[in-house]
Each structure stands twice: as C-alpha cells, then as structure tokens.
Specification:
The protein is mainly α. It is 64% helix and 6% strand. It has twelve helices and three strands, in the order H-H-H-E-H-H-H-E-H-H-H-H-H-H-E. A three-stranded mixed β-sheet has the order 1-2-3. Helix 1 (2-22) packs across helix 3 (41-47). InterPro entries: P-loop_NTPase, Stf3_sulfotransferase. Pfam families: Sulfotransfer_3. This is Protein-tyrosine sulfotransferase.
Length: 220
C-alpha cells in the first residue's frame, strides 16, 4: 500500500523540478492522466490536495477496445511472438473492472469528490472550447479571450495533423472488441459484476440534458 503513495510523492517532486527549471511555478499545469489514476484516487488526493480532477467518460465498449489496442501494441514491443489477443481482452476487462470498482469506493468519501468533474467524451469532441469553458465555470474560473483563441488555433492545427496520420493509425490501431474475443454484452456484464464499476462505466443517461459537464455532487 505504501508503493503507490511513494510513487505519487516522487511524481510531485518531478513536477516541481520541471516548474523550477522552466520558471513556471505560478502557472497552472494541465496533465493528461491515465486510467491508473482511477485505482489510486486516494493517493492522488493525498499528494495533490488542491488538484482539480476531470474524469472523461466514453462508452464502456469504446474504452475497452481502445485499451486492448494499446496493450496489444505494448506487448508487441517486448514479445518475440504475436500477443494472444483473447488474453489481452480478458486482462483489460479485469483491470478496468478493478479500477472502476476502487474508484467508486474512494468516491464515497466527500473530501475526495470536492474538486471532481465528470465530462462526456462525445461533448468534448463535438465542442471542445465550450466544454472547457464549462469546466472552468464549474470551478469558479473564467476562460480569457487569449485562452479561447489559443484553443481554437490548437484545434485547427490538430485537425490538419490528424488527417496526415490517419493512414498509419488505421494500420496499427485495432479497437474492435471481436478482435480480442469480446463483445458489447460481455463487457457490460463484466462491469455489472463489480458494483461501483457498473455505475461509472456508462453515464450517458446522467449527461442527458447537460452540456456534457457535471460536478460529482450532481450525480448523487
């Protein structure tokens, strides 16, 4: 139990070193996390008590398929034979079920959810700037005109870059569940067996009628 906490403490020291070297101590960092944070929300909050956590939600089938593709690619780097795709699928299902279950247990503690916001992935993709503005608003902040222009410029450049890399992505990225011995019903059934996992694996109904941004307290 001490290992994850120590890892986050070292992570904080690393970020502080980056800040000092760049002279950016007064700036706010935006860090894209990984699913591993779901398993260790308590440690994350302990080491970064003022952090604002934004949990981006996609349909469970998409998350599982995408992670299977990532794990397959990771294994291909280290294995001399092709990865067992069915084994990859089973491993991803087990990992996500445990991660979502642990996150649900921690989120029963009010102090953990004070700065937590849930974001719908589809809404973020459809109108990124509006969603970021809503996230800022939920924290009592305001997006400046300079910030808005920077986001719009970044998005325009990202569209151009994505079109150039689409061919390579199709060649290496396979997120179809059937490729890993899985299916939509099988994924949903796996999450239903893990209490809290079922609740957070699909929030589409909760997001209906919203702009895709919810404070955690609004899910209670």
């Amino acid at each position: 139990e001490e290992i994850p906490l120590a890892a986050y403490q070292r992570y904080r020291l690393f970020l502080q070193q980056v800040q000092l070297r760049r002279g950016s101590q007064a700036r706010r960092y935006v860090l894209k996390g990984q699913l591993i944070h779901l398993q260790y929300l308590d440690e994350l909050r302990s080491v970064f008590p003022d952090a604002r956590v934004i949990w981006c939600h996609r349909p469970a089938e998409q998350v599982v398929g995408s992670l299977c593709s990532l794990r397959k690619s990771q294994q291909e780097v280290f294995l001399s034979v092709a990865p067992d795709r069915s084994e990859v699928g089973r491993g991803v299902l087990k990992y996500l079920s445990v991660a979502l279950g642990r996150a649900g247990e921690v989120l029963q503690q009010a102090e953990t959810t004070e700065h937590l916001v849930h974001v719908q992935y589809e809404s973020l993709v459809a109108d990124p700037v509006a969603v970021v503005e809503k996230i800022y608003e939920s924290y009592g902040w305001r997006v400046s005109e300079e910030h808005r222009e920077a986001m719009e410029m970044y998005l325009a450049e990202a569209v151009a870059q994505r079109s150039r890399s689409e061919i390579g992505k199709k060649r290496y990225h396979d997120a179809s569940l059937s490729s890993y011995g899985l299916s939509g019903p099988l994924v949903r059934q796996a999450f239903r067996r893990h209490g809290h996992a079922a609740r957070f694996s699909d929030l589409r109904l909760a997001f209906q009628g919203t702009c895709g941004v919810l404070r955690h307290s609004e899910l209670q």
